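Field: COMPLEX_INPUT
Field: COMPONENT_COUNT = two
Field: RESIDUE_TOTAL = 681
Field: MODE = joint
Values follow.
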Amino acid sequence: MSFSANVLYFDGNGRNALRETAHSMPAAMPIPDNPYVISFSSVSKRYVIGGQAVHALDDVSLSIAAGDFVAIMGASGSGKSTLMNLIGALDTPTTGELSIEGRSVRGLSSEELADFRNKQIGFVFQQFNLLARTSALKQVMLPLRYARPRLENLELRARQRLEQVGLGDRIDHHPSQLSGGQQQRVAIARALVNNPSILLADEPTGALDTATSAEIMTLFEKLNRDGLTIILVTHDSSIADYARRKVTLRDGKIVTDVSALAGSVQNRVPA
Amino acid sequence: MSLFDSVESAWTALKCNLLRSILTTFGIIIGVASVIVLAAVGSGARHEVEERVAGLGSNMLVVFSGAHRINGRTTGTGTERPLSEADLGAIREKVRGVVAVSGQLSGAGPIVYGNANWTSTLTGVHSEFSLVREWPVILGRDFTLSDVRGSAKVAILGQSVVAQLFAGADPIGAAIRVKNTPFEVVGVLGLKGSTSMGRDQDDVVLMPMTTARNQIVGKSQLTPDQAGQLYIKFEPDFDLPEAQLEIEQLLRSRRRIPTGGEDDFEVRNLAEFMKARNEVFSTMTYLLAVTSIVSLIVGGIGIMNVMLVAVTERTREIGLRMAVGGRRRDIMRQFLLEAIALCAMGGLIGCIVGITAAYGLANAVEWPIRISLDVIAIALSFAAATGILFGYVPARRAADLNPIEALRSD
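Field: COMPLEX_OUTPUT
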């Protein structure tokens, strides 16, 4: 996926003005029967806490197109973590249908979910979650090691990803020898190494200063421009502004779903 | 995840907490070291007994003349009426299953060869001696019947005597003087080693029984044809306890011991005697084995404890591994391997400590030790088994974590 330079302009009051061109990007991709990489239809998730059922997600329908850049927002307790866990195939819905990359995750065993995450999802966390005393290269190789069937050239693949995030000269560094931004870049390289369909970032800039946050978000923008679907969970609206679409949750329901392109509330749930 | 990767990450995790890892393995170190020490000492002792039993000659009974009692005190084996040439002949003739017999009449005296002299055990034997004792003549010739009948002044030397007197020269045909009587050396015995009491069996000069009686030991007033201890070899797998009874009956009647009277001789199965002594060693070995199993269990509990701590400490890491595609069995295997690696590390250190301690013992108290590879292999596999046994619970706990909660933990 390549883009001409004229896509990259910024207007004065925000970053959303450029999205028009970028938004046409998915059309360049082969469109399968289901153009959505993620589709929730009437998904509910209930937990029982202290003998009381809690609706973490209440009849949510949501579709995300391949190549989109979506921010999921909401206060704590709004259900955004639950939504993220479902998208990340860390959890399965209580009721409703959830398919990722055209595959239903309901009824998958924990082993199948692990394999699914390995191939389809790249995770980026607020606290980076790097392994202690392990070189950047080894960190990035970790998902490759869990891949089945077994992969070849793990080192080469990991090295390429580190170069892609601008850490080609830091591959032997341990987390303690890297700055926060560099650590998050290692985590991003790790998330990308298995060519996932979705990059799932949970408050990726929560532990970083403003300048570093901007660098990380710029990296996300670049990755998205190259065709990667990115889902960003955040409560910080300035970070959410990097996304093309903002989905806000409250009490387990979607309250707004704003596409930056149109600037209007729209319902993207298929009928 | 491949086994190699799992081993590598297990090793990385252990390296991160090196001091803790080593302290944790102390129980295993002690367990494995004691397994090795006891196996080395036990098998050394057993091996030595077996060698000595074999050295005595198999299927053999020995008859000693009994201890003489004076005023209720025994004066030691061999102080009673000596056994005679005739007793030996009768046993040879009348007891079933006998293959070969020999007397062994011992004294001591100086031997001179050229300028060299040496005091050694002088032993009169019959011509079947080397057969009975399974102690071959490796140089020259054995005694013949006519040597024994004719009181020939010929001698067969043990290795120690050869070493003392001949210093590398060929002793066969040499003229030596034993208690001032000239003898011709006709043979040299193979190496026998020392007895369990530490007596050098190779420090001996053999001569025909008749020669010893006439020239060296002297005749007994009671028994002019004394023959010392009688060594009787039986057919392979012959029932020795039965033979022992037969010999006892025969000798009681020959020596006219009244019914109910005390034997003035003793028939011993030396191999049994030595094996019985070895039983004491076995009991000790069992006790040590229990000790080492206990320390392996204690060590295992230590491992379990530290692994449970590790699982708690690394909950986030486990969550991350699960998020990027680690299956429960991958997590399980990783933590099991860590426990096994801990135990294996303890096992290796334990091996080194154990082998060092065993050699230390061997030097300090001169115990015979034997360290075999299979003992080391057994000790290490015990250590690994401890790792699996006590690593299971923490590994299970790690594998059963919910990835969402694990990622959220601090």
